[in-house]
Amino acid sequence: MDPAPLLTVDHLKVYFPILGGVFRRRIGEVKAVDDVSFEIPQGTTVGLVGESGSGKTTVGRTILGLQPATAGSIKLEGRELTGLPASEFRPLRKRLQIIFQDPYNSLNPRLSVADIIAEALEIHFPEMNRTERRDRVAELLTQVGLQRDHLDRYPHEFSGGQRQRIGIARALAVKPDFIVCDEPVSALDVSVQAQIVNLLQDLQEQMGLTYLFIAHDLAVVEHISDHVLVMTNGKIVESASAEAIYEDPQHDYTKKLLAAIPEL
Amino acid sequence: MTAAAPQPLLKIDDLSVQFATGRSVTDAVQHVSFAIAQGETVAVVGESGSGKSVTALSLTRLLPSPPVRYPSGRILFEGEDLLQASGSRLREIRGSRIAYIFQEPGTSLNPVFTIGHQIEEAMQLHRPEVTDVRSEIVRALDLVGIREPEKRLGDYPHQLSGGMQQRAMIAMALSCRPRLLVADEPTTALDVTIQKQIMDLLRDLKRDVGMAILLITHNFGIITGIAERVVVMFRGRIVETGPTEAVLKNPRHPYTQALIACVPKPGARQRRLTTIDHAALEAAPAEAVIHD
């Protein structure tokens, strides 16, 4: 039997208004996400692949409550997330985390690594004191392959791959169940890409994490995912296991994405 | 020149580049030599910090000096040593003889001027003899596959997608008819589908325009079918060089082998991706492997 879904997305629509005219009235809409449904079983990785503008990032942001849904439902273990008032959504935020694409812009350059990661702890674990927080941050750093003596350094002192590890430690700080990985390796060298993908897989095994892995590169997505969704123009055009997507792609768009993978 | 053997367009000979800041000196590039023939494409492959971009930027001395120093070497472009050239001579060469495209087209373009204006500026500087600038620009945009170029002339960079911005950058580079195009990670910031289009475009341009290309990348995956020869750089040194096919089929240096192995192969169904074990490479031979 398949494990129960941790996350269920049902007929999700996210439209952005186009305003125009003298009174900035709504003259149309962009259907960024247009009737998308899928589920992610506990402890698995679903890959969401598509080009820029396909709506894949909007799906991730809407699940996290960073973008309101126009219609449809998002359920975490059966509990409806759309339309929740902010006060009720806040405690859920620590269960849902995100790792961003660009490790250069997603870390505050004026905060030390310890402060960047501890910020989340201060909000979600107010009972921890300063020393406990520092110990927890050090533990997180070792989990992602960094060292305790990195605590008081600043983002500019790290390479791209190390910064992405800091971003991962920050996401893990609040002990989430579910992480949206939004193009986490696209900005990295291929050799560093491999390290980060392996790290994400190790962490998943150790902690039973569930991932939505968003990327434009089917080679990486196919590697890390159990199930792959192919998205274009706001719609999912193909949904299949990682093996099937590679061996027997059905949709023309999937074939196009596969053809774009450079061959050695 | 009366020599029988064709003179290479560019010959880098024993180039070393140092960054001297305060009391510390960092050797970014050490004793690098390679050549590019007319119309040839050479790829320099390596990770961040391997010295590949420093090599590319050193060609026309685009790095600020100080802190940059060139303790050894010559950069012979059409027989002229660019390391000895004056500032005004370099300004003549940059853009007109050697043009660059960079990784992030969004930050390379000036956001407050239209695409047409920016290409025009480059042409006025380097090809003042052209009278019908507008139709030349339209031709350049058309050449790089921008549809309805007359309309796109008036677009600002933010109105174009990343792939279109990179095409505009290439058009700008080509408008001055360079002999050598230095493409420094031209597709790293782009989607794979767009990456393929840009690489196909460079391949077509190379065939139709006949310019030489120096392609700088971290990804062995993108160089096949375009680069005739490859130079692999590791920690500022060349570790392996030769015809692309020979290096890919039979990589002999452990670093080259590792760099090729970490490109994800679709359908391989391997649990873990191969990574580069830098500690193990400490013992790697310092001498470069040279394929004939």
Description:
The complex is a heterodimer of chains A (264) and B (292). With 264 residues, chain A is an alpha/beta fold. Helices cover 36% and strands 28% of the residues of chain A. Chain A has helices spanning 56-63, 86-93, 113-124, 130-143, 160-172, 190-207, 218-224, 242-247, 252-259; strands spanning 5-20, 25-41, 45-49, 71-76, 79-80, 96-99, 178-182, 210-215, 227-232, 235-241. In chain A, the strands form two sheets. A six-stranded mixed beta sheet of chain A has the order 6-7-8-3-9-10, with helices on both faces. In chain A, a hairpin with a 2-residue loop joins strand 4 (71-76) and strand 5. In chain A, helix 3 packs across helix 4 (130-143), helix 3 (113-124) runs parallel beside helix 5 and helix 4 crosses helix 5 (160-172). The mean pLDDT of chain A is 91. Chain B is α/β, with parallel strands linked by helices and 292 residues long. Chain B is 33% helix and 25% strand. Chain B is built from eleven helices and eleven strands. Chain B has helices spanning 52-58, 87-93, 105-108, 115-126, 133-143, 149-152, 162-175, 192-209, 244-249, 254-261, 278-281; strands at 10-21, 24-36, 41-45, 68-77, 80-81, 98-101, 180-184, 212-217, 229-234, 237-243, 289-290. In chain B, the strands form two sheets. In chain B, strands 6-7-8-3-9-10-11 form a seven-stranded mixed beta sheet, sandwiched between helices. A four-stranded antiparallel beta sheet of chain B has the order 2-1-4-5, with helices on one face. In chain B, helix 4 (115-126) runs parallel beside helix 7 (162-175) and helix 5 (133-143) packs across helix 7. The two termini of chain B are 26 Å apart. The mean pLDDT of chain B is 88. At the A-B interface, helix 6, helix 7, helix 8 and helix 9 of A face helix 8 and helix 10 of B.
